[in-house]
Automatic annotation (TrEMBL):
<dbReference type="GO" id="GO:0003921">
    <property type="term" value="F:GMP synthase activity"/>
</dbReference>
<comment type="pathway">
    <text>Purine metabolism; GMP biosynthesis; GMP from XMP (L-Gln route): step 1/1.</text>
</comment>
<keyword id="KW-0332">GMP biosynthesis</keyword>
<dbReference type="GO" id="GO:0005829">
    <property type="term" value="C:cytosol"/>
</dbReference>
<dbReference type="GO" id="GO:0005524">
    <property type="term" value="F:ATP binding"/>
</dbReference>
<comment type="function">
    <text>Catalyzes the synthesis of GMP from XMP.</text>
</comment>
<feature type="binding site">
    <location>
        <begin position="29"/>
        <end position="35"/>
    </location>
    <ligand>
        <name>ATP</name>
    </ligand>
</feature>
<keyword id="KW-0315">Glutamine amidotransferase</keyword>
<protein>
    <recommendedName>
        <fullName>GMP synthase [glutamine-hydrolyzing]</fullName>
        <ecNumber>6.3.5.2</ecNumber>
    </recommendedName>
</protein>
<keyword id="KW-0658">Purine biosynthesis</keyword>
<keyword id="KW-0436">Ligase</keyword>
<keyword id="KW-0067">ATP-binding</keyword>
<comment type="subunit">
    <text>Homodimer.</text>
</comment>
<keyword id="KW-0547">Nucleotide-binding</keyword>
<feature type="domain" description="GMPS ATP-PPase">
    <location>
        <begin position="2"/>
        <end position="193"/>
    </location>
</feature>
Length: 335
């Protein structure tokens, strides 16, 4: 059994004993693991922690601002935000191969992070939100697992940095990390978010990544997520069942949901005119482990509302399709 206040004070003591008066750097992605690690380490050592938040321009709508508000404004954490959009877009121009895109994003990410870290030469520690399943995964040889590690969790720690690793979540499972995050004062909504891949919208814009595509996708995706959150889910409540895990809405009832930008134009009508605009696909899946997944049977009314809203509100998109492929054979992401 898990006593949260005791756990937090022990973890805090352990971090203090480990780092002493040293400075610590942490790469904040806005994801659950790095966020909870940041909140915990900040609780332990306050301003000895500096977070570096690299905005690659492939984040969701208002995501960068939300990360800054939550950490810098609300929790008083030192966060350096680096807007590297132009650098990433520049290197991605003309590149269409999915693995090539991942490699570029991963490489630039490390580069930007390294350049920022070099501005903090007194730092002795690199903190990471590694959790127990990551430890297991990198011990095994999951094909995708290694690809994910290599860029996402700054796993490719640059040799030259000579920093010691601080990984306070190494022994925790995801659900424990979430509970810890809430106990540390992070918003429930943030801590229970769906996973978001390291390369971000880079793998949800098929083929070449462009500013224009990212803008359209961000807006469509935000509408989809908003409607999922706002649509109640009629759960069968089993007495004695952990109430926290009963989904209240369709966002909570799905494991991952997002929009995908297809660089394909099709014909539509709008008022008296004809349109010739892009398509977005909606993807929503239910899964335990993300190795296999079912497409979510979202209510038709919900899908209809999302489609209407996207087409009416996002000029440049005139068609919405729903992905009804399971994994396998399809993957969750489209690239
Ligand atoms: P797939 O598309 O392989 O995705 O069914 C399974 C899970 O992994 C996530 N994913 C990634 N996460 N970097 C990441 O950090 C990646 O390159 C990447 N590719 C897929 C995906 O979002 C899903 O949760």
């Amino acid at each position: 059994d898990w006593n949260m206040p005791d756990y937090i004070s022990e973890a805090v003591e352990k971090i203090r004993a480990q780092v002493g008066t040293d400075e610590v750097i942490l790469g904040l992605s806005g994801g659950v693991d790095s966020s909870v690690a940041a909140a915990l380490i900040h609780r332990a050592i306050g301003d000895q922690l500096t977070c570096v938040f690299v905005d690659h321009g492939l984040l969701r709508l208002n995501e960068g601002q939300m990360v800054m508000d939550m950490f810098a404004k609300n929790l008083g954490v030192k966060v350096i935000r680096v807007d590297a959009t132009e650098q990433f877009m520049g290197h991605l121009a003309g590149v269409t191969d999915p693995e090539q895109k991942r490699k570029i994003i991963g490489r630039e990410f490390v580069e930007v992070f390294q350049a920022e870290s070099a501005k903090l030469p007194s730092a002795k520690w690199l903190a990471q939100g590694t959790i127990y399943p990551d430890v297991i995964e990198s011990a095994g040889k999951g094909k995708k697992g290694q690809t994910i590690k290599s860029h996402h969790n700054v796993g490719g720690l640059p040799e030259t940095m000579k920093l010691a690793l601080l990984e306070p979540l190494r022994e925790l499972f995801k659900d424990e990390v979430r509970k810890l995050g809430v106990a540390l004062g992070l918003p429930h909504e943030m801590v229970y978010r769906h996973p978001f891949p390291g390369p971000g919208l880079g793998v949800r814009i098929l083929g070449e990544v462009k500013h224009e595509y990212a803008e359209l996708l961000r807006r469509a995706d935000a509408i989809f997520i908003e409607e999922l959150r706002n649509t109640p889910y009629e759960a069968v409540v089993v007495p004695g069942f952990d109430q926290d895990s009963v989904p209240r809405n369709w966002y909570e009832a799905t494991s991952q949901a997002f929009a995908v930008f297809l660089p394909v134009k099709s014909v539509g009508v709008m008022g008296d005119g004809r349109t010739y605009d892009y398509v977005v696909a909606l993807r929503a899946v239910q899964t335990q482990d993300f190795m296999t997944a079912h497409w979510a049977h979202l209510p038709h009314e919900l899908l209809g509302k999302v489609s209407n809203r996207i087409i009416n509100e996002v000029r440049g998109l005139n068609r919405v399709v729903y992905d009804i492929s399971g994994k396998p054979p399809a993957t969750i992401e489209w690239e």
